[in-house]
Structure formats: C-alpha cells, structure tokens
Amino acid sequence: MSDIVITYLSAAAAVLAALAGAFGILLAVADRFLRVPADPRREKIEEALPGANCGSCGFPGCAAYAEALAKGEAAASLCTPGGPAAAKRIADIMGLEVTGFVPKVAVVRCQGGGGVTGARFRYVGELDCRAAAATQYGQAACPYGCLGLGTCVRSCPFDAMILDAETGLPRVLEERCMACGTCAAVCPRNIIEILPKQQYVHVLCCNQDPARRVRQTCKVGCIACRACEKACPVEGKAIHVEGNLAVIDPEKCTGCGKCARACPVSAIGDFRTLRREAQKRKGEKQEAAGQKVA
Amino acid sequence: MSLLKELTDKPIKHNPVFVLVLGLCPTLAVTTSVKNGVAMAAAATAVLVCANILISLIRRFIPNQIRIACYIVVIAGFVTMVEIAMKAIAPEAINMALGIFIPLIVVNCIILGRAEAFASKHGPLASLMDGLGIGVGFLLALVAISLVREVLGAGTLWGYRLTPVAVGHTTVIPQYVPMTVLGMAPGAFIVIGLLFGLFYWAGNRRRDAARLVAVPAVPQVARDFPKPKKTPAQRPSEPRPSEPRP
Amino acid sequence: MEVGYLELAVGSILISNVVLAKFLGLCPFFGVSRRTSDAVGMGLAVIFVMSIASAATALIYRHLLLPTNLEHTNLLGVLGLPVPEGGYVLILKTISFILVIAGLVQFVEMVLKKSAPALYRALGIYLPLITTNCAVMGMALLNTEAWRDPANGLPVHLATVNGFCGGVGFLLAMLLMSGIRQRLAERRVPKALQGLPIAFISAGLMALAFMGFTKLFGIAV
To answer: What is the CA B167 to chain-centroid distance, rounded?
Structure first.
C-alpha cells in the first residue's frame, strides 16, 4: 500500500480512537457522578423469570412480579410456568429458602360435553362459551356442565388443550399445561380447576341436581348414590356427598382410586396412570433434548 | 440439530421479516424492484455472516456490560467495507435506489438481534450457518415483496418490461396498466400488510388444525335419553363458591 | 443554497414524513403505537434524541469528515493532519455517526435518570430503543445528503432544526397511528389481518393521505 493511503488510514484510525476515547471518558465520568442507586436484584430476577407474562403469579406481567419480589412483597414460589427451577433461581438471588412449591395442573371437572348430554335448543350465536352461557343459561342440557364451544381451548397461551370432536369436551395435555389458570378464569361454568398434580382422583362432575334430573341429562353425572363413600378406605372418609354431589377432601385423600372403581356411573376419574405415562413421556423428551429430568 | 438442517429451517421458521418482525425499514424502502431487493439482501447477508463469525470468535473476551457497543463497532466495520465495495462494484442505479439504507444496515435490528441471540452463544461454524439461514430468509421476504411491487406496480420484472404474451389461445401475460402507487410509500405498506396477513392466515390454519380437532358448531340434540315427563325447572348456572381460584 | 426554517419544517413534518415517506423508525412505530400514552412518550423521546444527534453528527460531518472548503473548515486540517481529497467521509461516516449517537444517548439517559426522574420514567425507557434504531441514524444521514446541497449537507443549526422537525413528524405519525389502532382494537378485523397486517394497511392509507402534501407551499423536497 502506498504511503499516502497508510497515512490516511492511520489518521482515520486515530480520529476514531480519539472520538471513542472522548466518549468513553465522558461516560465513565458521568457514571461516577450521575449514578442512581438501583436494585440490581430486580434485573437479575426478571432474567430468571420465564417472561411468559401470563399473570398466574397475580401480578401484571413478569416485570411487575420481579419488582415486587425485589421489594420483598411477594413469595418466591408464585410463578407456575417457571416451576421449581424459577423459584429456586429467585430464591438464590434473594437469598431465601423456598418452601411449599406445589406442581399443579388444570383439571376439567366434567365428562358430559355437548356430545354426551345433548342440547336443549339450537344455539346459533358467537362460538364462545361465555356468550352461550349468557344465552338462556346455555344450550347444554346440563346447567352445570361444559358447553363444549372451546373457549378454554382457544384461550390457552401454551396450546395445552384440545377439544375432542365426539364428546365436545376439552382435554388437557398435561405435558404442556403450565397451570397458569387462564382456562379456569375463562370458563363461565367454572368447571376447570387448577389442582395439585399429586391429587390423582377427581370427581368429574359439577352437577348439583338430584339424581332423577341428572339421569335425564347426563349418563355420567353424579347421582349422589354414596357408593364412593362406602368404598373409601380412609378413616373418616375422604369423599362425602354434599348437596347431591360427591366432594373429595384433598387432605384426607390418599389417591387409592377405590371410589373411582365403585362409582356406578363412572363419574370419578383416576388420573394416576395417565400422569405417570405423561411424566415418562416428558422425561424421555427431556432426555432426548439433553437436559436432566426435572 | 445438524448444521444443514438449520440452514433449511431458518428461512421460514425464523424468517426475519415475517416471523421475527425485524428489519422493516430497509424491507419497505428498497423493495421497489426485485434487483434492488436482491442487492439489499446480498449486502445485509454479507454483513450478517461476517459479523456473526467475528462476534462468535471474540465472544468470550467481551465484558457483559458493553457487549452491545462492541457488537455495533464490529458491525459498523463490516458495513463500511460493504458500503465501499458496493460503491465500486454495484451499478449506479442500485446505489441510488438503496441510498442511505446501506449504511443503515449497521442499525438493522436483524444483525444486532442475531448477534445478541445467537452469535454470542454459539461457535463460529454454527453462527455462519445461522447468518446464512437468516440471510436467505431475508432474501425470500424481500423477493416476495418486491416481486409484487415490481410486476404489479411498474410492469417490469428484473428491469425487463413485461410485454403481453399469449401462447396459443391462452394469455400468459395480459395487457395491463401498472399500479404506480405500489411503487410508492403507501403501496409498500399495503403490500407488506397483505403479505403478513397471508402469512398469518397460513400459520393460523396450521395451528388451529392442530389445536381444535373439531369445534362442534351446533351440538347434537339429545337422542339417547327419554323425554322428560314434565318440563324440568331450568336452574341458572351458579358459580361454585368453594374453591378459590389461583 | 439558502434553505429556510419553514421549508425544513414543512418538508420534514408533512411532505417527507420520517416514518410515512422515508420509512425510518418503523420497528418502534409499530411496536409502541398501541396506546396513545406510550406513543406520546416515544414521540417526545425521539424529538429529543433526534435534535441532539443531528446537531452532533452534523458537527462531526462538516468539521471532521468533509475536506475544507468555502463553507466550513476541517479541524484535522487545522491540526496539521493529512486530509484526503474526498475527506474521511467514505470510511468514517457510518462508524463515527453510530458511535456519537450511541454515546450521546447513553449520556443523556444518565443525566435524565439523575436529574429528572419523573421525565426519565415517562420517556427514558424508550431511549435504548431509539439508539439502535434507524430513525435517528437515518435522520443524521439524511441531513448529510440534504436537498439542495448534497456535497456539503446541512449546516449545524439547520441540521438541528431538521432533526427536531423530523422528530415532530414522527410524533405526529405516532399519534395518528395510535388513535387508529385504539379504534381498530374494538372493531371486528378478519382473523388473519389482526394485529400487524391491519396496522400496516392503516399506515399505508395514512401514507397515501400524506402524499397529498407534496409541493405544499411550493416546497420541493
């Protein structure tokens, strides 16, 4: 390269270095004198959160939750999508002990979708369960059960629900469910509940009508026959019939599943085998992706 | 995943314009003709690939606080090189059309975004493949938009006027008056809006098909159960008060 | 060679609107324009940064990069360093501009955080968004290729005014866009067009409307 080009290039490099140096010094000096004390933990916490902004912690978004955590105004285990991993990271940052994190999942407590119970009238409106429920108390024959129009399915931010075509019932894909509570909030009949995964046995019916009426509407509705009560081996009975509906007491229930087998209308569901298989599938998938099984 | 698979996956799944929604400014400004679009994509890809490789090589030596500034310096260096190269190699018409958008590659969110998201965390070969994949995606997006804008808006394709062509009795290219507005600012926005809509429509169909096995539009009227003897009292659905919701 | 303030104002705000005609700053334009309060904050931040950055970059361009001529002198030449014929424009323009813009915005952000925390909360969060964004850099580059004087670009005071007006044009476009988007949110839009597509189409119609300002007051940009 000719001399002139070298001098020009060096001059250019020198100019650039001078500019950069000037700004560097300016910023360093400014940082020294203009520093505002900020809580560095807030940013670290925000990084530790999954960033899904689902609101299941009760705060409007991950940033708000991080802010509350940094101020010490919130428990560290509220983030369900982040799971125990996020809770542990938060606890590490905040220097806390994490207790009481319970993995949860959404459970649809109804087996009588539109395809099973039938309809009282032909509903031609907005394909939204909330709209249908507001229209003459809903088109499904059972006034407590699933309307089958799939609002919960569409509302799931993690694509963890599928609407079954034959029964009209939503099905929760437990591997993907993050227990954020969106589907439960959206259901106008409140038949979806977010319950701990450790609870394997659930009464899959919300119908509080007497047996005669239930038999007219739904083949698999609870008729309050108390067969489950009689079958329960637990001292003091973990399952009671209250108001024409069987209710399981989660503190006493051991998940043995005897009530599910005893129920003459199969209104009680035992999720144990299903969950074990789902966990196995999830473990295999995670191993395939090269991570440790949670 | 194998490196070659990344190259074929990225252009569609991680398309910088339609999926990541980055780099909108040059996309709209430069797609008045396919030639300009291809030139822009070539320049951006060159910068992206080189910057990715260099940043990936020096990623361990960059302190975390000033990483964005370092990326910008590296990218600016490569953009200057590409700028000078284009002034020398590219035809004058293309340089006039691309104008300030060549130096603006330095603040193009695509390149900075990929440096931050990929090159700073992977090795040089993977970063090279990533750069190529994203670059091809950018090229596809630019060509798609500029094809519409040039053929319908200027009546030319790659600079060649589209004369009406008929094969036998069928008209392959009809006689038409081009819509000049497509070559101007409003046309750019409207064309990209409609193409986005097309992209979303295709994605929605795929996603809905996976999520909803079938939404029963009108549930079947009950057939299995005996008709009730007298009209049962219709009870309104009440919320169950027991469990507090999370 | 004389460009007046009115011509700059009308030119940068209406005829050659930064967003709708020059395609600069689109990413924050579509990202932040959902709510009017965000839009106003963003617009004000852009005005602020664009003015300061235009001033600084014009200073650097005219007095460091361009070779000395009748209109201005090159400081390097004054210092005795060699200045090539075309000046240092070709090799240093891009990198020095982005360096200056990034450093300046960072400094301004620090000053703002310390001295006016309320203002910082209102528009400080948009500042990092604007730095690495084509709006400010694009305006700085446009100032150097300004209308009647592509060889020298705008002088520093005119460049500052141009930057300010460019920011005002951005604010105007943002306000209009956020109003439209808030109305759109309550309407039934076809599913595939919801969100970005309909926003783009609305911007296109706005750009079409702004094209009506061409040759306003006889100003030719």
So the answer is: 35
